Amino acid sequence: MTEQIRTRVAIVGAGPAGLALSALLHRSGIDSIVIDPRTREDIERTIKAGILEQSSVELLRSLGGSRVDEVGARHDGIELRWNGVGHRIDFQGLVGRSVWLYPQHEALIDLIALRLGEGGDVRFGVGATSVEGVDTDAPVVHAAGPDGRPIEIRADVVVGADGSRSLVREAVTGSQTGGYFREYPFAWFGILCEAPPSSPELIYSTTERGFALISQRSATVQRMYLQCDPELDPDAMGEREIWDELQARTGGGLHEGPIFQRDVLRFRSFVAHELRRGRALLVGDAAHTVPPTGAKGMNLALADVVLLHRAIEELVRSGSEHGLDAYPEAASRRIWKAEHFSWWMTSMLHTAPGANDFDERRRLGELEMVATSRHGAAYLAEAYTGWPFETRPRG
Ligand code: DHB
């Protein structure tokens, strides 16, 4: 027996984009369902990036139930370091904005509790299998429950918030891959370790040996990354070797401790050729991915849903598709700025395999220019702390 569900908005994916959109729609009195093939525990435990822009924090606070002010930490700057010498970028002094270190899985714990607490329909272990009728005003999502039982969701709008391997993207662009794409010849090897913080703010450090990022999680747990080969086996390096490399790439002085988690993050830039087809729209990683440098991913996802929320509200209130029509162009303006910023930070901070002496000296010249010029530093600070969210698609 197929379970039949009727709702206004079928949201595929219970990541930050899908959950935040369902919370915003609820505040406008608009029903939605969120489905995700993963379990709640999987979603709440997966380690992702940790930086929230100021507008992201304001959005999460406004939704309610966010622990960002208790568990998160405000950061008013970062340190850029090359050849062992640090230069602070003072966000508050330059642009009057800050970022918050608040790991994505903590934000997800908050959003899931919020939605379930207010009676939201969030279904874990439910994976979409196909999307039909996106060119009509009654699209359908076919899905399968944890026991394989078929589910059919009829909605006014289908939102693909289903990550970089999005199924909804196929219904929108006609293919799994259709997009603007760039790969990078390096990756990050990430670790979590038990140690006190080595610095009050993040350190983005580059040397001839490659890049390292010193980030934090709490008073007792730290997150650090090393530039590495994309094919690196995360278990191939011994703990001593990892610490020696981190110390060498930062000029030393890091507090060491047991490493209890390791992963390799691929670097990709991607923007889908289309963000909308009829009544199906893409948000977050389903629409675009960025390399991790600068931690724009979750922030961009939240900026998308703030725009899309208004567009859906307009459709439900007045029947007008004007907002849906405007969404792709409005979202793209921010997406391409963030794509540029993530690419730029990445290229400025990483040694590309095959780079010659000229390339390396030019790169250090760029860092010198950015860090020692008020205008250069403000350019970085403005993008890193994030542009204010647009709430209405400018047509
Ligand atoms: C983190 C990740 C990033 O990509 C970044 O630029 C800063 C911090 C993190 O996981 O803490």
Please give a handful of descriptors for the protein shown.
alpha/beta; eight-stranded mixed β-sheet; 395 residues; FAD/NAD(P)-binding domain; single chain; six-stranded mixed β-sheet; 29% strand; 21 strands; 12 helices; binds 3,4-dihydroxybenzoic acid
Quickly describe the structure.
Helix content is 37%, strand content 29%. It has helices at residues 16-27, 40-45, 54-63, 68-71, 91-95, 104-117, 168-173, 239-250, 297-318, 322-349, 357-372, 374-385, and strands at residues 3-6, 9-12, 32-36, 51-53, 73-75, 77-82, 85-90, 99-101, 121-124, 127-132, 140-144, 150-154, 157-160, 179-194, 203-207, 210-216, 221-228, 259-272, 276-277, 280-282, 288-289. Helix 1 runs parallel beside helix 6 (104-117), helix 1 (16-27) packs parallel to helix 9 (297-318) and helix 11 (357-372) crosses helix 12.
Care to describe what's here?
- By secondary structure, the chain is an alpha/beta fold.
- Helices cover 37% and strands 29% of the residues.
- It has helices at 16-27, 40-45, 54-63, 68-71, 91-95, 104-117, 168-173, 239-250, 297-318, 322-349, 357-372, 374-385, and strands at 3-6, 9-12, 32-36, 51-53, 73-75, 77-82, 85-90, 99-101, 121-124, 127-132, 140-144, 150-154, 157-160, 179-194, 203-207, 210-216, 221-228, 259-272, 276-277, 280-282, 288-289.
- The strands form four sheets. It has an eight-stranded mixed sheet, sandwiched between helices. It has a six-stranded mixed sheet with strand order 9-3-2-13-20-19.
- A hairpin with a 2-residue loop joins β15 (203-207) and β16 (210-216).
- α1 (16-27) runs parallel beside α6, α1 runs parallel beside α9 and α11 (357-372) packs across α12 (374-385).
- The longest helix is centred in the last third of the chain and has 28 residues, at 322-349.
- Residues 49-51, 202, 213, 215, 223, 292-295 line the site of 3,4-dihydroxybenzoic acid.
- 3,4-dihydroxybenzoic acid (DHB) binds next to β16.
